[in-house]
Structures are given as C-alpha cells and as structure tokens.
Specification:
With about 300 residues, the protein is an alpha+beta fold. It folds into two domains: about 10-130; about 140-285, Four Helix Bundle (Hemerythrin (Met), subunit A). Helices cover about 50% and strands about 15% of the residues. It contains eleven helices and four strands. The protein has helices spanning about 10-20, 70-80, 95-105, 105-110, 140-160, 170-195, 205-210, 215-220, 225-235, 240-245, 250-285, and strands at about 25-40, 50-65, 85-95, 120. A four-stranded mixed sheet has the order 3-2-1-4. The longest helix is centred in the C-terminal third of the chain and has 33 residues, at about 250-285. It is globular. The two termini are about 25 Å apart.
Length: about 300
C-alpha cells in the first residue's frame, strides 16, 4: 500500500524495491532526508557540467523478519546498489517487536510511527499505535538522568586518561580510546534526546543520528577540507585500524588534534545535556504527576 507523503522523496521507488528484495517489508518511516548537491565546473574545453546529488536518508524500517545481512552490510548494500547516489542510515525493527515495545511505553518508537511521514506500508497494523500518547513520569526521568550521568562520566574518564604527554605516546591507542569516548557521548545524547538505544555502533552512524537534534557533530567534526576529513576518518576507524594494522599510520600531532576536538565535543555535549535535562524534568516531574499528553488513553 503506497501512502501519500508531504514532500518529494528522491529514489523512492528504487529504494523500496531494493529493501523488499532483502526482507519481508511491512513499512518505512522517514526520520530525516537530506539532498546534497555537488556541482563541478569545467573551464577547459571540451567539458561538461554534471551536477551530482547525494541523498541521505534516515529510515525506520519495519519488517516481518530481520534482513539476512548485518545492519552495517545492509546499509552498505543499499548504498552500492544505489550507485553511491543515495546513502541510507537504517533503524530496524520487526513488526512484532515494535508492537511489543510501544505497548511497553517506548517513547522513541511511539513518536517515530506518528510524527514522520510514512514512505511505504503494507497495511494499517500500526495505525492504533500511532495514536498512543507519550509517557511522562518522574521515574522515567530518573532513569534517563542516570544513564546520561553514567555514560558521560565514562567518557570524561577516558579523556582524562589520555590527557598526558609521554615520551612513548602511541597515537593509534590514543585514537582508539577517543573513539570509545565519543561513542559513549553519542549513546548518552541519543538516550537523552530520543530515549533511543541503538543496536548498531558505527561511530559515523551514531554521529549522524545525533545530528538530527543538534548541530554539534557537524560543527565539531566538519569534513569541508582534506585535513578535516582525515581527522574524521582517524576517529571513526580507530578501532579497525588498531585491530588490523600493526604499523602506526598517524603521528602524535594527529592524535593531539583529534583529542582537542573530542574535548570540545565533550564540553559542549555536557552543556547541551544540562539544558535538556532541565526541560525533561519540567515534563516528567510536574506536581500534577503527569503531563497532559501522557493522560491520553490508548486508542483501542
């Protein structure tokens, strides 16, 4: 069943077809879409101007069964099949799982099937769940705050551990610790803003998800020059580099530059989290106990 959507979604038909080949599909919800145009100007004849457009999707994909591929391989498969013109960041759930989780009070999934446009759906099995209200409660706030504090404390400790200058510094090891520290910060931010705990932990994936509610990843880790792209590559691939390569490809100066960026990310994330916790406390801990939105009865 094709659904009406409020905006144009590039490569929609082909993308749905590719996903259907990989799993028994129930529905797709568009959390975010971004079209990036790259135009090349040629001044030497003969030449051509061929603007290239990269479309970046963030999708909640709901299937009757999980795809055969891992989530990372599945996203890479879609990217290559779309001839690298469409990149898809996937959040996946089975239909049975998503129904159970929303019944249990999963605020992230409740929002995701009610707010974003539906790109495709097989039937109306999730219609009643889209009418559920958001759950607000002081105990939920305490759990969110506890998770935030714990993960940011871990990240802060890791940054403290590597904040030393030694004669025998090992840049790859330093970058690997920074990788884990930023991962902890992203997980903390995702739980704080979305109440979401991902099942895929690629750092590029986590930073992309965080960019939906804050410009912090794009501001601290821009990729507008070769040097900045290289720093981003070092950070995001540090775990694989230290796992598979015995030779140091990066210098102490490289590791130092990335360290400074990660420290900035941590400081700004802490400030961001402080403001968000204040807002969440107002929602979850009102004297009236529950926000009016949570008083909505579940539609039968």
């Amino acid at each position: 069943m094709k659904t009406k959507t409020p905006t144009k979604f590039p490569f929609k038909k082909k993308l749905i077809g590719l996903i259907q080949k990989e799993l028994p599909l129930h529905s797709i919800y568009v959390i975010g879409v971004y079209a990036e145009k790259k135009r090349q100007e040629i001044y030497l004849t003969p030449g051509c101007t061929n603007p290239q457009k990269l479309v970046i999707y963030t999708l909640l994909i709901i299937g009757h069964k999980s795809p055969r591929k891992s989530q990372g391989d599945f996203m890479e498969y879609l990217y290559n099949k779309m001839q690298q013109r469409c990149k898809v960041y996937v959040i996946f759930h089975t239909l049975v799982n998503i129904m159970d989780r929303i019944d249990m009070g999963d605020n992230f999934l409740t929002r995701t099937i009610s707010q974003p446009p539906c790109l495709y759906k097989e039937d109306d099995a999730l219609l009643r769940f889209s009418r559920y209200g958001i759950c607000y409660h002081r105990l939920l706030y305490k759990e969110i705050k506890k998770g935030w504090t714990s993960r940011m404390k871990r990240a802060g400790y890791m940054l403290t551990v590597i904040d030393t200058i030694l004669d025998n510094e090992e840049p790859n090891s330093k970058l690997a610790i920074l990788h884990v520290a930023i991962e902890q910060m992203c997980l903390a931010l995702l739980n704080l803003f979305w109440e979401y705990k991902p099942h895929h932990y690629s750092l590029d994936y986590l930073l992309h998800l965080c960019s939906h509610f804050t410009q912090l990843p794009n501001r601290i880790f821009p990729r507008t020059t070769f040097g900045l792209q290289r720093q981003y590559y070092m950070l995001c691939n540090a775990q694989d580099i230290i796992r598979f390569k015995h030779k140091n490809e990066f210098s102490n100066n490289d590791a130092h530059k990335v360290t400074k960026l990660c420290e900035r990310f941590y400081e700004e994330a802490m400030a961001l989290g402080k403001d968000q916790l204040k807002q969440l406390k107002e929602l979850h801990c009102q004297p009236s106990e529950l926000n009016s939105e949570s008083k909505e009865k579940k539609a039968s």
